[in-house]
Amino acid sequence: MENFIVSARKYRPDTFESVVGQATITSTLKNAIKNNHLAHAYLFCGPRGVGKTTCARIFAKTINCKSITEQTEACNECDSCIAFNTSRSYNIHELDAASNNSVDDIRTLIDQVRVPPQVGRYSVYIIDEVHMLSQQAFNAFLKTLEEPPDHAIFILATTEKHKIIPTILSRCQIFDFNRILVDDITAYLEKISKLEGIEYESNAFNVIAQKADGAMRDALSVYDQIVSFADKSITYHDVITNLDILDYEYYFKMVDAFLERNPGAALNLFNEILNKGFDGHNFITSLGKHFRDLFVARHPDTVKLLQVGKSISSKYLDQSRKCTDDFIFSALEHCNNCDLAYKASKYQRLLVELTLIKLSTISEKKNLIPESDVLDVDTVSSREPEIDKKKVKSSAEVKIPDKDINQPDASPSFEPATENKEDAPYDSATTSIKNALNNLDSQDANDNSIDAPESQEASVSESIDQGDQHIFSPDELVSCWNRFANLIKDEKPRLSSTMKNHPPKLLDKFVVELELQNNVQADDFRARIKTELLGFLRKELRNRQITINEKITGEGEDSTKRYYTDQDKFARMNEKNPALNKLRQQFNLDFD
After folding, report:
1. Cα(343)–Cα(170) distance, rounded to whole angstroms?
2. Which residues, in sequence order, are bridge partners of residue 155?
3. How far apart are alpha carbons 251 and 237 in whole angstroms?
């Protein structure tokens, strides 16, 4: 019976051309050999299983080859190459620094370096896991590494470059190996399968490549395991079953439940996942990765970052069209928060279920203003008929701030949006804004029925149907106000508290007045929630003439100044009652 050789050894590259995913490094080494610019010390660093030791062996084999090819590859025919291929070469010495990390081991190596090679030109010393050397061993190795004999070349390999002392790093040419891409690992596994006569599905190898996390050796080890399990036919379901990986379909079904605002379906699906033996923590992190893939699939510039099989990538593209960026951003934030809090939670299942419920209701909180209510000015302008100047003038009067304009009672008014540009999108589209503005600007300059806007950026609201002028009571306004405050309670608790502590006042002409203590509160209100709040009120109260004005009540030095220290508080009290200072002096009181 023939002995089995694992794929990582059987298909280990023996030429620079066959190395996967390290084209920059292999081309640099080939040019150094071709131009005879060989350094005396190299440091190969990078993650495990990316080809550090393999490249070191190929480099050592090639520089000792007696007839290098035109492609700067070893010929595999000379005595040196044959000795290397049969593991009989005396020119290449490999040392494991993990078990030979003492000063005595380095002294033995130094004595060995003095001996010139019997066959070939160079003696190559490959020291693997060099970061395991002790501090004393590093110091003993410094002189030899800096000035070795002409025939000696050192190649140091490590996965932890930061543990190597700077004096060693300064004596080496450093090559940083990259993680191997998923596509490169997948292509290499397909190549091996064709040589072995094994049937396969590309999606199966894609899962193996992602599981390997950029390490070819890990991918080949998993590949051998799957081959033993599947018996000459590797399918996607064989791989996820053997590796205990949750099927992509569960994540697609879960996101569909979120989009349908169906928390019950999401919880039942999560219960099914737990019954299959999967961990809740791994599920929530994988769900976050799924949302990340949905985001990169939404944009042409980032779709190349989607590292999944072709058949699965089409599903990502289809589902990404159903999601908005705001929905995905919020979902990623919730998944990340759950991931961070998972280990500290005493009831971890409840934590995940709460996250799923939040994700199921996220669209209700984020999309407070439906897209159908947003008015595209260019679209409306292109589809509406031209408006006669006289009709525009007679149908409404423009309302300019700080100016007294007479307005007919039966006609709705146009409001400028110079300060609050968010007002315009919520107006009902009954006429063309651009045509109305052009006609107003073209009226006779001597006509004083209206004043021109002070800013070129000012716009006017469109005429309002009578159905959009619902007259509401102050109680209805407060109820709607509190509902919005509850909706933003989780994401914006401070602003929610501000809204509840400062109930609105209803003035004439549907003006809602909000009294705030200082300019900081007012600026925060305008920047973060005023747009959403205004749209919410107009929709819920069925009145698109609603406006919100902020009023600062904290005027004057005393109302805005804060007293933090005991001395400041006493000084303020003493101003109101000077007898306090006499009382303090009489009893010799102190602030402590």
Report:
1. 42
2. 42, 126
3. 16
The model carries a pTM of: 0.57
Which residues of the chain form CATH 3.30.300.180?
474-557
Q: According to CATH, what is the number of the domain 182-242?
A: 1.10.8.60
Residue 563: the pLDDT is: 59
Tens-digit pLDDT profile for residues 115-167: 888 777 899 999 999 999 988 999 999 988 888 988 999 999 999 999 999 99
481-504 b/e (C-beta count within 10 Å ≥ 16 → b):
beebbebbeeebeebbebbeebeb
Provide the 3-class DSSP secondary structure of residue 275.
Answer: helix
Distance from C-alpha of 208 to C-alpha of 13, rounded to nearest angstrom:
20
Amino acid at 141: F
For the domain covering 248-366, report its CATH number.
Answer: 1.20.272.10
Identify whether the C-beta of residue 291 lies closer than 8 Å to the C-beta of residue 328: yes
Provide CATH code, domain 474-557: 3.30.300.180
If you search the block for the tokens 């150094």, which residue do you land on? Answer: 32
Which residues make Cβ contacts (< 8 Å) with residue 64, sequence separation at least 6? 80, 84, 89, 91, 92, 120, 121, 122, 124
Q: What is the pLDDT of residues 31-86, one digit of tens each?
A: 999 998 999 999 999 999 899 999 999 999 999 888 888 888 888 888 888 888 88
